Amino acid sequence: MAVLAAPDLAVPDLAAPDLALSEAERADLLDVARLALATAVQGAPDLALAAVRTADDAGEGPGQPAGAERTGAAFVTLREGGELRGCIGVLDASRPVRRSVALAAVGAALHDWRFSPVTEFELAAIEVEVSVLGPIVELSDPFDFRIGDEGLLVVRGSSRGLLLPEVATLYELDEVGMLEATCRKAGLSADAWCLPGTAIFSFRTVRFGGPALGARAG
């Protein structure tokens, strides 16, 4: 299941950027994920993070990566043979999105508690999927979201749970099923979404990906 399982999930910045990603930006972010994944499984995750250039450290000029100035939250999902192999998200929408993708890729490879760390020998069979999140909006009506098109974040006290939009399609969930599954992901009872004090947010994503060993630019 393509979900965030990180224990430090916090309420994200609701003023996330829009989802107008160019093809060049998508290709660049997929390259970032591949680089981070490859260096992480080789035992050098810090090298991947150090290699991610942003507008702050890349400067102006033609050598600047596509969309280096963009900020945003992101998830990286890894699959092997069609099965989930790791998924971690970075929800700080004020962070450069290239760094969010790099951090999420390293996390998905090494720090998803549901799986053993990905090894270098698995890379040939790994598919990488990047999801960049758009604005996250609090819902006054829990049913005011589009099933399959929007993901959900449930917040109650210190409990947090998030499901990406495609989870509803993968598991054939209706609106109630999606709400209940997000609550369970947060460690709450399935009906916590309808209890006072529970905040529910929705969001959309731009999703793209390819093989982990695909050609990287530059």
User: Would you identify the CATH architecture of the largest domain?
Assistant: 2-Layer Sandwich
Q: How would the global form be characterised? A: globular
Largest sheet at a glance? 4 strands, antiparallel
Mean pLDDT metric:
85
Reading the helices and strands in chain order gives HHHEEHEEEEHHEE
Helical content class: 25-40%
The CATH topology of the largest domain, please?
Answer: Glycoprotein, Type 4 Pilin
Summarize the SSE layout with pairings:
Layout (H helix, E strand, L loop, with lengths): L22 H19 L3 H7 L3 H4 L15 E7 L2 E8 L6 H14 L15 E8 L3 E2 L12 E6 L2 E5 L2 H5 L4 H11 L13 E5 L1 E7 L7
Antiparallel strand pairs: 1-2, 1-3, 3-8, 4-7, 5-6, 5-7
Helix pairs in contact: 1-2, 1-4
Concise description?
This protein has 218 residues and is an alpha+beta fold.
Can you tell me about this structure?
This protein has 218 residues and is α+β, with helices and mostly antiparallel strands. It folds into 2 domains: 23-55 and 68-134 and 206-211, Hypothetical protein ph0010, domain 1 (Glycoprotein, Type 4 Pilin), CATH 3.30.700.20; 137-203, Hypothetical protein ph0010, domain 2 (Dna Ligase, domain 1). The protein is built from 6 helices and 8 strands. The protein has helices at 23-41, 45-51, 55-58, 97-110, 166-170, 175-185; strands spanning 74-80, 83-90, 126-133, 137-138, 151-156, 159-163, 199-203, 205-211. A 4-stranded antiparallel beta sheet has the order 2-1-3-8, covered by helices on one side. It has a 4-stranded antiparallel beta sheet with strand order 4-7-5-6. α1 (23-41) runs antiparallel to α2 (45-51) and α1 (23-41) packs parallel to α4 (97-110). The longest helix is centred in the N-terminal third of the chain and has 19 residues, at 23-41. The radius of gyration is 17 Å and the shape is globular. Residues 1-15 and 58-62 have low confidence and may be disordered.
